[in-house]
Amino acid sequence: MVRLKEIWLHEHVPVFVRPITILVLSNNSGLIEPILNAVSLHQIKKNSKLSSRNYFLREFGTERSEQYLTAVKNFVQSNAAYSIICYLLQVKDRHNGNILLDDEGHVIHIDFGYMLSATPKNLGFESSPFKITQEFVDIMGGLQSDMYGYYKILILQGLLAARKHMDKLMPIVEIMQHGSQLNCFSKGNVTLGLRERFHLNMTDEQLEFNVEKMVESSLNSLTTRVYDTFQYYTNGISK
């Protein structure tokens, strides 16, 4: 994640990602940096009883206010970054308890215990490229809004930048998987799938079309809704 942030800064892609510092203490323990001034979407929905868009209006002001518009822009730029990260690394367990919202409107994903080849309980519910819901789109202003279009443009720009610097990203995974006992490497070599997700064989125009398809399939994903429902009934996590 840190390397992706560096790449996006270098390539001037205006997305937001919040890396988390982890101090490893042993092969099964460590310290994780807390994210300050942020609360999970689960807690927001549970405590406010509001839709995500109405919560934004309550926290950041009217739709035309500078604070609200800035918060929506932050929301879009961070969603684009984490959409790319979740797609490339196949991050799973994206329920609302693992997605935070900070006091500036940024989305911040936490808990990367399931990625690459690992899924919670091997259920395989989350088959969409990443998580984008209608509530997220409502915050952006709807399917026909400029900010929703901006979200898709940022995903394209972020993927193009990541693809350009793929040689800086692949070795990290290749080195980590050798002799690793981590669940994410439990199904063998995962680098081939990761390499394929950079779509080296696609032109920029073909990749743009592919991004459109990925966003549409993620937005309309039945498996995402099923997993959110599963988490609601088994763990009480708000949908």
UniProtKB/TrEMBL annotation:
Q: Which organism is it from?
A: Adineta steineri
Coiled coil start-end:
none
Domain of life per record? Eukaryota
Q: Which UniProt keywords apply?
A: Kinase, Transferase
SMART domains recorded for this chain? PI3Kc
**SUPFAM superfamilies named in the record:** Protein kinase-like (PK-like) (SSF56112)
Domain PI3K/PI4K catalytic residues, every copy: 1-223
Q: What is the lineage of its organism?
A: Eukaryota, Metazoa, Spiralia, Gnathifera, Rotifera
- What is the reaction catalyzed? a 1,2-diacyl-sn-glycero-3-phospho-(1D-myo-inositol) + ATP = a 1,2-diacyl-sn-glycero-3-phospho-(1D-myo-inositol 4-phosphate) + ADP + H(+)
- The EC number of this protein is 2.7.1.67
Q: What is this protein called?
A: 1-phosphatidylinositol 4-kinase
Question: InterPro entries annotated for this entry?
Answer: Kinase-like_dom_sf, PI3/4_kinase, PI3/4_kinase_cat_dom, PI3/4_kinase_cat_sf, PI3/4_kinase_CS
Q: One biological-process term from Gene Ontology?
A: phosphatidylinositol-mediated signaling
Query: Could you state one GO cellular component term attached to this entry?
Result: cytoplasm
